[in-house]
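re: ur question from yesterday

yeah so i grabbed the chain u mentioned. its 256 aa long if i counted rite. heres the sequnce exactly as i have it in my notes:
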Amino acid sequence: MSKNRACVLIFVVIGNILELTMLIPLIFSCIVAIPFAAGSDAPCHNIGGTCQDDHLHCSGSYVTGLCSGDAHRRCCSSHTAVDIGGCSGVKIYSRDSWGARRPKSFSTFHTPASLFFIHHTAGHGCHDFNSCAHTLRGIQNYHMDTRGWDDIGYSFLVGQDGNVYEGRGWHHVGAHTQGYNSRGFAASFMGNFMTHLPNAASMNAVKALIACGVQKGYISPSYHLYGHRDVGSTECPGDQLYKEIQSWPHYSHTHP
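ran it thru and got these structure tokens back, copy pasting raw so excuse formatting
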């Protein structure tokens, strides 16, 4: 082989190596991006839904915020309610139905509870499933990412749509009422009720939830009901709601 041909071959080899070196970051970024692109629809898939353009027919209802892509690509989900075993007057939507994240950890609640606490979130209210699901995910993100909690704090939450939404539920200790979390459950009304009451549908839903808990053995028949401010320095559950619950069955003026 002549010296000139050898030099040309060396330059070709070096060029190929340099070209491959430049391509490596691009190849790596493509490989890394594949699972993230595929997994970006996971919140929708986790609740048994399908991501699709919202102009298409959906046999259930569309849920916002669970799919990748533009705003018109939404999750079509049937969002079934939790089986409450024949309790009447209340529909409890499961965590999966509103797109809850998995808890970091949890502690088992030993029923029956002797206490039940009423809260309000002091934020925005909601009036239909989609807006309530969006609000719930925001509350859970705040509790887990900003406050550093293991999960959304409340046992249950209720919207102005008259439905109850599962938070930590009947089986896990909450993070809602400091000093009493292992002794009681809490329902939080989504919204701010300092100056006005929640609507009748939401208040009736919480009363039915408590009755259901008693019926199923999760709450003691001799339970005591409190507002959050009864056991802590807070305005929760709002002035108007606090006045209202003092007329509810089992409300106690005695400190637990």
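noticed a couple things. Residues 36 and 42 are 10 Å apart (CA to CA). also The two ends are 96 Å apart (CA to CA).
anyway ttyl
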